[in-house]
Amino acid sequence: MEKKEWYLEYEIQKNRPGLLGDISSLLGMLAINIVTINGVHEGRRGLLILAKDDEQIVRLESILNTMDTIKVLKLREPKLRDRLAVRHGRYIMRDADDKKTFRFVRDELGLLVDFMAELFKQEGHKLIGIRGMPRVGKTESVVASSVCANKRWLFVSSTLLKQTIRNQLIEDEYHADNLYIIDGIVSTRRANERHWQLVREIMRMPSVKVVEHPDVFVQNTEYTLEDFDYIIELRNDQEEEILYDIVHQNNMFSDSDFGGFDF
């Protein structure tokens, strides 16, 4: 029988020498293999483990619950956030009210790239929005994630190198495995109807689409935030507010200035 992967997370109640060794020995006695182990939060450890049947996991949980040195928090089939937590030693922050919104700061760009790459690898339609102030690293993170996921990325609208507004794609650019990047501000402020026809065509494709500034995008289109599968927020630090007033002030940017900012 093929072994099944599980995620175990526990909080240390009484930290003493040899605690991890005790748990490792217990797993060994139950013939459960440890794949990866790491601290995932202050006072918490996460483990990816392999068991040949569910009965082993039931016995493990029963024994762990008798130990006064730890408190079992999670014992389940691993989710994407679990795998990334063990890999990077920290959990992705998730909005308490909106479960599809995930928050990152610049110090977590490696975690962000890894997270988006895993999303990009999934087949079929996926619409992802990314919020953030200018020059925080949004576009670069999307491109890096595309490389990690072995996806070809295409700018439909962007300001990364120069202002890009596409009105059409060539034949080999229509592919379900491609990743399409749309800047909601550029498309809203500079695009014509031909561009929007292309955007609608791409949105109907069974592929991954990433929209920078999704709030601006939905204000000027028939799409809503409910259409997005994930919303990612990237900040310079935890206290930074993501504000769009700066791009709506009259005469704030000339055409040349606008092309020079990484929104």
TrEMBL record:
Pfam families per the UniProt record, alphabetical: DUF3388
PROSITE patterns given in the database record: ACT
Stretches assigned to the ACT domain: 8-83
InterPro entries listed in its UniProt record: ACT-like_dom_sf, ACT_dom, DUF3388, UCP021288_ACT
Stretch forming the signal peptide: none
Protein name, as recorded: DUF3388 domain-containing protein
Protein source organism: Mesobacillus zeae
